């Protein structure tokens, strides 16, 4: 299983200097991918912009929106062009991870209705792929980006099997993830497609001092919209010591995950080295 690391693009207060230093260290410590998460109503960096900055200071590491909230972009053709641009600028290192999101305020401020988000995504996925393959919109120097679909409902798995290269889960425990992988593989096989889907997941880590306080301060705020109980559960699930990191890696590997992206709760670039040391221990 490959091990990626999230950029702190959604950690409030992250500076541009911290973000690019994070990217440099992540590449030096041989993580597979730099991931980003997405919100509108939050003091975060927009994912494609953040990955553009990371692409400029790295040469090898993969770049992935994990995930981008597609319906909030509204214009599928523009999103396809942005993805092609980032893929070309990075030398073919970009994977577009895309989902629908569930925050009402993100949709309200964007003047987009939530009711049609699934239908928009179903239509947009085909349009994006057709644009990539058509070679008429955006630079195609590095070919098409990778394409993974995010979500935890059956419709997301079916979308991934039908048109994506694979699927990415967010927030599932390893035992839940294993059951969803089985559904994904079944949906993939039902389409008659060759090969196997790319299977990705994300989790959180907090290794810098004080880990408990850092995890609670960020994650209970970021996930407050889901209710106090859920936000506390997510904060509590962050890996806060090297032993738990290793347990997560083993559990997701056993569950069939191809690549796990571990996201930080602070923007201190020292966290990159702490995670790399924990993975290597």
Protein architecture, described:
With 281 residues, the protein is α/β, with parallel strands linked by helices. It has a single domain (2-280), classed as Alpha-Beta Barrel (TIM Barrel). It has eleven helices and eight strands. It has helices at residues 16-28, 47-56, 76-89, 104-109, 117-134, 154-163, 174-191, 211-222, 228-237, 242-254, 270-280; strands spanning 2-6, 33-36, 62-69, 94-99, 146-150, 166-170, 198-204, 259-263. Strands 1-2-3-4-5-6-7-8 form an eight-stranded parallel barrel, surrounded by seven helices. β1 (2-6), α1 (16-28) and β2 form a beta-alpha-beta unit. α1 packs across α2 (47-56). The longest helix has 18 residues, at 117-134.
Please give the largest β-sheet: 8 strands, parallel, barrel
Portion of residues in beta strands equals 15-25%
Largest beta sheet: what is the strand line-up? 1-2-3-4-5-6-7-8
Which value, in Å, is the CA radius of gyration?
18 Å
Low-confidence stretches: none
What structural class results from the helix and strand content?
Answer: alpha/beta
Tell me what the CATH architecture is: Alpha-Beta Barrel
What pattern of helices and strands is seen along the backbone? EHEHEHEHHEHEHEHHHEH
The coarse silhouette is globular
CATH superfamily caption: Luciferase-like domain
Output the CATH topology: TIM Barrel
- Whole-number count of domains: 1
Count of alpha/pi helices: 11
Tell how many strands the DSSP assignment holds.
Answer: 8
């Amino acid at each position: 299983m490959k091990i990626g690391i999230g950029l702190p693009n959604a950690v409030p207060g992250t500076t541009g200097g911290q973000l690019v230093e994070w990217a440099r260290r992540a590449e030096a410590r041989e993580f597979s991918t730099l991931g980003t998460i997405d919100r509108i109503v939050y003091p975060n960096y927009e994912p494609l912009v953040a990955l553009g900055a990371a692409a400029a200071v790295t040469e090898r590491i993969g770049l992935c929106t994990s995930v981008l909230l597609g319906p909030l972009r509204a214009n599928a053709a523009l999103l396809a062009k942005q993805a092609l641009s980032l893929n070309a600028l990075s030398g073919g290192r970009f994977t577009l991870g895309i989902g629908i999101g569930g925050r009402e305020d993100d949709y309200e401020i964007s003047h987009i209705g939530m009711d049609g988000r699934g239908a928009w995504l179903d239509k947009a996925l085909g349009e994006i792929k057709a644009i990539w393959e058509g070679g008429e919109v955006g630079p195609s120097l590095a070919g098409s980006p990778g394409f993974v679909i995010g979500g935890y409902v059956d419709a997301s798995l079916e979308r991934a099997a039908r048109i994506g290269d694979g699927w990415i889960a967010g927030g599932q425990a390893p035992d839940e993830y294993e059951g969803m992988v089985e559904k994904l593989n079944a949906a993939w096989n039902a389409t008659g497609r060759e090969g196997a889907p790319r299977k990705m997941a994300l989790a959180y880590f907090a290794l810098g001092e004080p880990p408990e306080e850092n995890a609670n301060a960020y994650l209970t705020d970021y996930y407050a919209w889901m209710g106090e109980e859920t936000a506390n559960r997510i904060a509590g699930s962050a890996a806060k010591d090297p032993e738990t990191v290793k347990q997560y890696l083993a559990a997701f590997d056993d569950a069939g995950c191809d690549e796990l992206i571990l996201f930080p709760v602070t923007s201190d670039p020292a966290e990159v080295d702490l995670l790399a040391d924990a993975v290597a221990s």
